[in-house]
Recover the amino acids of this structure.
């Protein structure tokens, strides 16, 4: 299919486009091939492993997670997204100043091994933490809430325990995110 | 004046009291059922009882999704309140452990519980009443053998918490005709067996037959299709099924697996294929398919091919694109394929999919708006969850998408109105 449509969106705070992008090009290919943002991982390509997710920032400030392998680049037209490259704040030269709390928690807990699933887990956990900021959970419900939020993310190496514990510790250490 | 009072009393109140007290509830039950079954007889009847219990999908309603088998507690929401399904395990306190053979017969065939009170018609005794006494004995024998679960069921809410059960005598009088299993000696045994299961234990009409104003089945339009819980339980008429490409073999396959070229079962029907028809004996499933696929004149219509694309999809907009097709490529094609071919065990194909060929776009729109959860099917098959698109596509986009899909794969060229999308219930998050 050779038909192209103009695409404009915001990626990591930067306006991209309008550029002509073929209809039918998955978002992950656009990130990898057109923008050289190769941190987003291509796992199953069938929408199941969630290695390929990015954050979508809505106009009202809320965030959600979206897979990029099953959705077309044009599905993101007009949206604002954050890829793994846009998570940690950077200085004017583009160097990472410090990692985000979620990234630090994963490193501190030795949460991952090969790391292929990690960009997706960072995305999922970041969206989850953001949801706790707006709607805290009870302590008794925290583990279940983490599992509900990250259940879709597959990891072939670790068995998930350290990922989930990292998020639990971070949520408990962040004032106002867990009540009771 | 006294005379008027007496007349009113005679015309209205006395008959009402008589109905209320159940005087018009005649019984078809034979006195034999008051003789308990011997232990050997019950043991021998168990396998047959298990098959019939599966055919009735008894545990579909009398269990929570991941709860213990038969322990009840499933909320059944109605506009008048919530009824919780009862515990039908043989626990003597919370279940039906103290039910005699006769008590069980009365529940299944007359909708009356062991305390002599009416069951609410959420229990489909309108259908199960036609079950033969021997089969009720078999179900009784099997259910009395399953593990007892000492678990109390929550109290009903809304109007159902009040002592209304006597009033069900009125409802039953008006809505429960004395039904018999269809018995046509001229038809093959499979047809008769299927008729017995579909019209009886299988209670297909509970969803697929429209309701009258009293929420009873409108038997004049039996299995004509109905709207239930915001989705269409489609018509099960032979010509409608054949138009969707079903024949006896493929309908049997669908019921036995939940998967077919016409799509995968979802919503309430997934419970049916998952817990009931996929676990039943093949011969019974084939009997059901035979009965449903047979027209009134006794013939089985030939299955239609999937419809050809309709003209609309060949008339792109001025810039060369069809807005509905663009939405499909952007949001759907990643899983359902550029040409709607689907991915096995991930997402069903679109071509020939009954959700798209149905005349009413309701199910297509409902699935796009609400998504479908992860589902498992017989034989370790599965389908991955479809996300709800209520928040990521506008109602206009959804209407355009549905219009294009229906012209492409549904055989319908008339547009789907945005108003149809507007009025759909949204997912709660
Ligand atoms: S690569 Fe996108 S979900 Fe697996
Ligand atoms: S760390 Fe290797 S896949 Fe998760």
């Amino acid at each position: 299919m050779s038909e192209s449509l103009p695409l404009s969106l915001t990626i990591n705070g930067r306006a991209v486009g309008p550029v002509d992008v073929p209809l039918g090009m998955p978002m992950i290919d656009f990130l990898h091939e057109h923008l050289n943002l190769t941190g987003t991982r291509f796992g199953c390509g069938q929408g199941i492993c969630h290695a390929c997710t990015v954050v979508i920032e809505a106009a009202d400030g809320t965030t959600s997670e979206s897979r990029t392998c099953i959705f077309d680049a044009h599905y993101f037209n007009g949206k604002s997204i954050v890829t793994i490259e846009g998570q940690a704040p950077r200085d004017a030269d583009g160097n990472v100043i410090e990692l985000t709390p979620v990234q630090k928690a994963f490193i501190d807990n030795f949460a991952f091994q090969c790391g292929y699933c990690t960009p997706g887990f960072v995305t999922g956990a970041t969206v989850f933490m953001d949801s706790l900021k707006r709607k805290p959970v009870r302590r008794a419900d925290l583990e279940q809430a983490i599992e509900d939020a990250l259940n879709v993310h597959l990891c072939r190496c670790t068995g998930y325990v350290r990922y989930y514990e990292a998020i639990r510790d971070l949520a408990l250490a962040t004032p106002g995110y867990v009540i009771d | 004046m006294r005379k008027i009072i007496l007349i009113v009393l005679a015309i209205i109140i006395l008959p009402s009291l008589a109905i209320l007290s159940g005087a018009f509830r005649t019984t078809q039950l034979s006195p034999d059922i008051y003789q308990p079954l011997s232990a050997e007889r019950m043991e021998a009847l168990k396998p047959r009882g298990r098959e019939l219990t599966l055919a009735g999908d008894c545990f579909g309603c009398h269990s929570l999704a991941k709860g213990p088998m038969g322990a009840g507690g499933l909320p059944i929401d109605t506009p008048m309140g919530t009824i919780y399904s009862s515990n039908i395990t043989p626990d003597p306190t919370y279940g039906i452990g103290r039910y005699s053979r006769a008590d069980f017969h009365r529940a299944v065939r007359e909708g009356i519980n062991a305390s002599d009170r009416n069951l609410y018609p959420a229990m489909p005794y309108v259908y199960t009443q036609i079950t033969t006494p021997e089969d009720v004995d078999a179900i009784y024998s099997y259910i009395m053998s399953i593990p007892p679960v000492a678990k109390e069921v929550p109290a009903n809410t809304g109007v159902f918490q009040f002592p209304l059960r006597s009033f069900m005598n009125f409802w039953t009088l008006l809505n429960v005709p004395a039904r018999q299993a269809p018995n046509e000696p001229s038809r093959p045994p499979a047809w008769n067996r299927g008729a017995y299961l579909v019209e009886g234990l299988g209670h297909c009409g509970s969803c697929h037959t429209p309701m009258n104003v009293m929420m009873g089945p409108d038997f004049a339009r039996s299995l004509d299709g109905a709207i239930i819980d915001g989705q269409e339980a489609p018509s099960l008429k032979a010509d409608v099924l054949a138009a969707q490409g079903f024949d006896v073999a493929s309908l049997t396959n669908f019921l036995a697996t939940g998967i077919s070229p016409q799509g995968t079962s979802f919503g309430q029907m997934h419970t049916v294929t998952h817990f009931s028809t996929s676990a039943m004996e093949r011969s019974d499933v084939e009997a059901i398919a035979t009965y449903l696929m047979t027209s009134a004149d006794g013939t089985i219509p030939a299955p239609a091919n999937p419809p050809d694309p309709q003209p609309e999809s060949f008339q792109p907009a001025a810039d060369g694109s069809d807005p509905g097709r663009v939405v499909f490529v952007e949001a759907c094609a990643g899983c359902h394929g550029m040409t709607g071919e689907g991915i096995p065990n991930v997402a069903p194909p679109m071509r020939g999919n009954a959700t798209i060929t149905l005349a009413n776009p309701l199910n297509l729109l409902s699935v796009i708006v609400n998504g479908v959860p992860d589902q498992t099917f017989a034989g370790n098959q599965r389908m991955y969850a479809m996300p709800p698109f209520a928040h990521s596509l506008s109602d206009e986009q959804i209407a355009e998408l549905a219009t294009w899909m229906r012209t492409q794969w549904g055989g319908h060229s008339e547009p789907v109105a945005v108003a149809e999308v507007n009025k759909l219930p949204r997912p709660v998050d």
